[in-house]
Amino acid sequence: MKLLLPIIFLTLLLASCAPAPATVISESSTLLADSSTTTAATLPTTPPPDIVTPPNGSWQIQYAGDINTDLDVDIYNLDLFDTDPATIANLHARGIFIMCYFSAGSFENWRPDVNAFPAEVLGKEYEGWPDEKWLDIRKMDLLAPIMSARLDLASQKECDGVDPDNVHGFANDTGFPLTYEDQLQYNLWLAESAHARGLSIGLKNDSEQILDLLPYFDWQLHEECFEYDECELLLPFIEAGKPVFNIEYALAPSDFCPQSNEMGLNSIRKNLKLDAFIEACK
């Protein structure tokens, strides 16, 4: 037995010096992997330096009706599909930042890419919105190509950033057993994919995951934080120097603007249909 020890030692030493096999990582493989081996640490904590983030300034959001481009604001939030490139170009010529909206967590039956969604990813109807259904965000092999195409469209139209909506399905009755981790991985994939295309990205609502997602999202957009007493949850973004935009629908500006300004939020009042009407706090 003593004669075998030097041989065994030499064999183990040579094995430890052998080069590790090369690993090829695709654009989205880090977040399409099993969640047990994929963590937030696989992503950069700050966006690439060439990404333009929105100013902490005045803004308008409009999806319905003819877009009123005459407002003296720093930012426009517009529908990705319905806004033509000429409108974006004209706003860019005035130095205005453009956020482009699309739903990343629900199926909208009027969009031009509806035929790309297989039936197996469609869940329950979105309460209050009969033309929408929740998506099974666990099926990334089916959803990633669809959402990647939408992000490509945002890049082609020269949007500065994207506003992916409905990214909190895990906290809703979607028809699927979505978990916190499922949502976290999907939202991280969205952030990585937007940054890979030079787009900044905002976290829409999803207040439950703010602390986990703060390093990877460039701004926050929330609806009715004063109506539902949720504004305190948004403070980590403000403390990190990232702008927070808030929309109120039911409250009068006098009921939320003083507190909004004191907290450093960019709040506005809008009609629920998001037409040209706006009452801004600043």
Briefly say what this structure is.
With about 280 residues, the protein is an alpha/beta fold.
SSE blueprint:
Blueprint lengths: L3 H14 L11 H4 L26 E4 L12 E5 L5 H8 L4 E7 L2 E3 L13 E5 L2 E7 L4 H17 L4 E5 L14 H17 L3 E5 L5 H4 L5 E5 L11 H5 L4 E5 L4 H11 L2 E4 L9 E2 L2
Helix pairs in contact: 4-5
Overall mean confidence score, pLDDT: 87
- CATH-assigned homologous superfamily: Aldolase class I
> How far apart are the termini?
84 Å
The fraction of residues assigned to DSSP E strands is 15-25%
CATH class, please? Alpha Beta
Task: Sketch the topology as an H/E string, one letter per element.
Answer: HHEEHEEEEHEHEHEHEHEE
The profile of the biggest β sheet is:
9 strands, mixed
Low-confidence stretches: 1-45
Query: Percentage of helical residues?
Result: 25-40%
Tally of distinct domains? 1
**What gyration radius follows from the Cα positions, in whole Å?**
22 Å
Q: Give the tally of β-strands.
A: 12
Gross geometry: globular
**CATH architectural label:** Alpha-Beta Barrel
Which structural class fits the helix and strand makeup? alpha/beta
CATH topology: TIM Barrel
Continuous helix count:
8
